[in-house]
């Protein structure tokens, strides 16, 4: 397998292997918190969100995420009216993966300078995202940190993070533990890069004014992350047996490895990636295995259901069957590559 952390992404400034080790350092300490009582957390670390037990029936689902270096694209373009959609999307799309219905989000905005017009535009995006996801934003925090935040260019610098909350019945939590070999994988199209891999994307495509079809590179890079809440909630409320949900973010299809079942996943008919992915690969000389480790490659969400439910699930989600579950525990196969979560992808040997 490829060694995650090496390659174009690391050269552009993001070492995923070091990041994974850093996360483990955090989790190893936080997991030892002594409450003097039984914890309320239902799930272990590694899921898209966690669930706290409120009573014997109901859980509150929690997730938190930011927009990453996509904020730099917004700063460079001077366009801040869609970045809030990304903040909402990155949180609610994680929350639905445990079967929860998102209900609210709190935002944290750190700025270099508290510019009213910029913040009004950020709020417009947050409003649009909240309405798409059907959630409230009952509060948040604004921090002016000129010594910490530096813009591209200054003084446009900002960071945007959300903490999302949802409700789920304890007996309806989706963890992937019921996924079985032979189950169908439904892929739902992304709207582009979403909010992952932007350090590599910006390094490969520094000229935001460059034409890309009838749009500019900047237009394509600022395209908001797609929100999947309404489709997934409709599916969860139906009679479809939803066995697994995976938000395809950084690590690409390796995110399927976050589902609990001891199985493998074969993506035999992937969704077509948008042209921006091919351009990034060409300009940065990034091989397919690393592209699939960094980006969603045109698929923003996967849903695993029994084959009998595949057609109905695909219709509800607006996606299509892209593959099936295999018996090769922990192995994810796509586009002539094989990988494992935490190890990355590598080309399949011709001798196999």
Can you put this structure into words, describing what you see?
This protein has two domains: about 40-170, 60s Ribosomal Protein L30, Chain: A; about 185-345, Phosphoribosyl-aminoimidazole Synthetase, Chain A, domain 2 (Alpha-Beta Complex), CATH 3.90.650.10. About 30% of the residues lie in helices and about 25% in strands. It has helices at about 10, 15-30, 70-75, 85-95, 115-135, 200-205, 215-220, 230-235, 275-285, 290-295, 310-315, and strands at about 50-55, 60-65, 100-110, 135-145, 160-170, 185-190, 210, 215, 245, 265, 300-305, 320-325, 330-335, 335-340, 345. It has an eight-stranded mixed beta sheet with strand order 9-11-6-12-10-13-14-15. Strands 1-2-5-3-4 form a five-stranded mixed beta sheet. A two-stranded antiparallel sheet has the order 7-8. α4 runs parallel beside α5 (about 115-135) and α6 (about 200-205) crosses α9. The radius of gyration is 20 Å and the shape is globular. About 45% of the residues are buried. The mean pLDDT is about 95.
């Amino acid at each position: 397998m490829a060694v995650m952390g090496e390659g174009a992404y690391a050269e552009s400034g993001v070492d995923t292997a070091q990041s994974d080790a850093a996360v483990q350092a955090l989790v190893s300490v936080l997991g030892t918190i002594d409450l003097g009582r039984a914890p309320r957390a239902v799930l272990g670390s590694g899921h898209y969100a966690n669930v706290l037990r409120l009573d014997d029936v109901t859980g509150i689902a929690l997730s938190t995420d930011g927009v990453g270096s996509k904020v730099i694209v917004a700063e460079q373009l001077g366009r801040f009216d869609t970045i809030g959609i990304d903040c909402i999307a990155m949180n609610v799309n994680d929350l639905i993966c445990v079967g929860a219905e998102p209900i609210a989000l709190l935002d944290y905005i750190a700025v270099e300078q508290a510019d009213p017009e910029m913040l009004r535009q950020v709020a417009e995006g947050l409003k649009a995202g909240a309405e798409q996801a059907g959630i409230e934003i009952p509060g948040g925090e604004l921090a002016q940190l000129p010594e910490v935040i530096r813009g591209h260019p200054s003084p446009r610098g900002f960071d945007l993070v959300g903490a999302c909350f949802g409700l789920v019945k304890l007996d309806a939590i989706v963890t992937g533990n019921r996924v079985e070999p032979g189950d169908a994988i439904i892929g739902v199209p992304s709207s582009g890069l979403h909010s992952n891999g932007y350090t590599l994307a910006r390094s490969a495509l520094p000229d935001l004014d460059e034409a890309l079809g009838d749009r500019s590179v900047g237009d394509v890079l600022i395209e908001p992350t797609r929100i999947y809440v309404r489709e997934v909630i409709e599916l969860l409320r139906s009679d479809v047996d939803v066995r697994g949900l995976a938000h395809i973010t950084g690590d690409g299809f390796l995110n399927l490895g976050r589902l609990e079942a001891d199985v493998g996943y074969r993506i035999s008919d992937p969704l077509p990636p948008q042209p921006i992915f091919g351009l990034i690969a060409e300009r940065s000389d990034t091989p397919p295995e690393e592209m699939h480790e960094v980006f969603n490659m045109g698929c923003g969400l996967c849903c695993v259901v029994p084959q009998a439910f595949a057609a109905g699930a695909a219709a509800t989600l607006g996606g299509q069957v892209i593959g099936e579950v295999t018996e090769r525990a922990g192995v994810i196969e796509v586009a002539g590559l094989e990988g494992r979560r935490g190890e990355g992808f590598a080309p399949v040997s011709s001798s196999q």
